[in-house]
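step: validate -> pass
step: tokenize input -> pass
step: predict -> running
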Amino acid sequence: MVSAAGYGGYTLLQGTSNGKPTGDAASALAAAPSRKIITALSAAEVAHTASDFLAAWSSGDVRKAAGLTDNAAQAADRLAAFRTQFHATSIALTSRPARGTTVPFLVNARYRYNGQQSSWRYDSALRVARDSSGRAVVKWAPSVLYPTLSAGQTLGIDHTPAPALRILDRHGKVLTAAEFPSLGPVLGQLQAAYGTATGGSPGTEIRVKGAGGKPGAVLHQLSHGKAGRPLPTTVDANLQAAAERAVKTKGPDASTVVMQPSTGAILAIANQPAAGYDKAMSGTYAPGSTFKLITASAALETGKVAPDKPLNCPKNYQYGSQNFHNVNNFSLQNATMAQDFAQSCNTAFISTATFMPDAAVSNEAHDVFGIGLNWTVGVPAYSGSVPAAAGSLKAMSYIGQGKDLMSPLAMASVVSTVRAAGFHQPFIVSPSVDGRTLAKAPRQLSASVATQVRSMMRLTAQSGTAAPAMAGLSGDIGAKTGTAEVDGQSKPNSWFVAYRGDVAAAAIVPNSGEGYKFAGPIVAATLKAVS
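step: predict -> pass
step: emit ->
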């Protein structure tokens, strides 16, 4: 009797008499006299081979166990990984009665992973065969490790996220996406960033790994995730609620960020719609005339202009190759710089380009206001970009157009810098939690310049373009409007920045209209909630 395909080019022959082949075996020999005769595996060979293999694997003698297979290199790698990768403390293997050359066995493995103990018990099987030398060996296959594994598959480790953190506002209130939908993306980012920094740990599981590491079925949980300590943030739940209500009034696409100027702490983040991309923190928009806070600071530092000194505001102004104009082509007669600022005169501020170097405003944005620095906020955030420019691009930059790009967070930081007379990098998690370093501006905004810009913002809030939105707000207030034209949009982006005491905010409503009409009410409503 001849078996199916022989191992290693050998034919398995059965049937002998006095040690000589008979019957079909003799015929086979006559037909292929060059082939070796390999007798069938005896029950004792199957039992001994399986027993030796399982004993070596169980004891941790991977080299010996692998040497009892027909693929020592692959078997050694997989058997070693089974013990070390999963941190096994013991592996007990118990054979069952053989079925021909197949030997079922029970696996009872114990593990200690991340301080947690677990046991994994399952049935598997191996097959004994003869190798090319005629030796009885275990036929290596992935299914020896686990019965459902097929060719190309193995066992690997995967990690599950740490259990959800309890994330708190500045007063200890638990923040949830259900109550504050705009914080949904932020809370998820905080969970990912601080799950382990607060003492939490992810779960760990053994699962099937396919070719190229593609994950398959989960087979065993090695350890369960552990929640970390509650994470305090700088968010103020009351202002967060007010900001979320406010963006809904001027949607469908509005964003705002609220900050504490004296520290840089982020008090609220709101987007409409709440889900999806976090435009408030990472959006990139031309800031329009709100950028005049930076242009004014740079110009005032030269000493060539002052809030109470004349600064002409014509209908049009030529700079470089482009002719610039004001909204609705207005002009101001005998205006001071403060009046130009309050009425958002583009031509007046573009005219300051004649006495400032090409990189002056770009340097002011970077060195004094921290724009473009590496902000370590605690979640992803865009710190803005103001590249140096010449010619018409330089003029456009002075009014927040051209290549100037800001996020609502960046503009909230700009108005905060003016209010505090110094840059404080925005943050939502204190650096004391994880030891990170906050960005520092290379140069401090001078107290006198900050005072002058605040005086112009106060005038703007009381009788300038921001007055309609800021009506009813008392105390130490200041504001600036912005209307940014964008190619391809039928309407401009509406911007508004303001402060009230030690709270500052910035808002944008893209493709809507003038700053005071759309973004203004968002900021004003939020500032009215300041206690």
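step: describe -> The radius of gyration is 37 Å.
step: cleanup -> pass
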